Amino acid sequence: MTSYVATADVPDLKLIRQCVHCGLCLPTCPTYVVLGVEMDNPRGRIRLMKTAHEGGVSVGSEFDEHIYKCLDCRACETACPSGVQFGKIVEAARAQVEAQRPRPPLQRAVRALFFDVLLPRPRLLALAARVSVLGARVGGPILSALARGGGVFQRLSDMTALIPRRALVWDSLPGLMPAIGERRGRVLLFRGCVMRAAFGDVNAATARVLARNGFDVLAPDDQTCCGALHVHAGERDGGRALARKNIDRLERVPDVDAIIVNAAGCGANLKEYGWLLKDDPQYAERAERFAARVKDATEFLGDRGLAATPGGLRLRVTYDDPCHLLHGQKIREQPRALLAAIPELEVVPLEEADMCCGSAGIYNVTHDEIARALLQRKVERIARTHASVVVTANPGCAMQIEAGLRRAGLDIRVAHVVEVLDAAYGGTATVLPA
Ligand code: SF4
Ligand code: SF4
Q1: Is residue 280 domain-shared with residue 201, that is, in the same domain?
Q2: What's the predicted TM-score (pTM) here?
């Protein structure tokens, strides 16, 4: 008798059975590296999900703890010789937790505000982000003084430290940015929620770089959050509702070569709309078609090649792989090739670039101790490169790494791959050192 309820997604038994318990994924699992506990590695978690199928363990405290301690970074997928798709089963297990475990009223209210109110409304999200930044500037020093006593103030102070100090930029892109030079095609830019509310400069840099390389860039206003954070946090119905909206609004835009996304977490989720909506007869096929058109900006530019030669940039940089780009989308070479195409740019390798920085959606808020241990590990390795810029391709990683560098007192900038390219084309990116 199964411990899962039919009202929520159920971890797919066929996918679970693909695990042969070989343990090859263990050294790549960040929670296993930090905690050293069998139940906090992929093999242990898969066994737990299988045992719940057989009714041997209930969805309750032990199950919840190990399923939620996972970062959903999917490093185990890259390492696994059996092709286990861990993200799909752990996200379904989280949906079971949310369906079976009533959260306390305050947590329910905070989650509803975040997932149902803010994320689908970028303007409101932008306002909330600016209020948080202001609050962090005013209250941060007071909180860090109070944090010396530990407890709740320590927690609040750590959360405030995650709020970025970089200027938050609203995305005010025009509906169309025409190609510069010989026209090679037409793409649609997926503007996102966090990207639109706070990283509008990265969206603008993405559009400029694409236009500079011969693509008309459509940036329709009528699109919404991709739902990645919902899916990650067991709110799969919320994620599905957003996916349907994006499909309805964007599939009708004609003559588009690709839907370009510049946030790795969003890209991985958009590419899995087919899986998310596989049981919806009205959307299953449309979701597959939609997903097949999604490309990460670095993937698209790397595969198509740069038509315009970038100018030189005298900088020493290092590249950190976002988990949902490397493990979720298997994109490793293209961002590195784009950086290598910039004359005079020195790109130094980063040890453990493939290991999670601890950001992982809202993990750095819900599991701050493990997230901090991973961030410290990342910052130590970045410091050893003596780079002046860490390049990445996901807003969550950028914010997390920036917070870690700030905490360590290191004057190292964080930039997106497209911002570095944009700067090499003479763009207006201000994130790089002068
Ligand atoms: S997704 Fe990441 S944290 Fe979770 S089991 Fe796999 S490697 Fe470990
Ligand atoms: S998930 Fe893959 S690598 Fe890890 S124990 Fe199972 S089969 Fe081996």
Answers
A1: yes
A2: 0.94
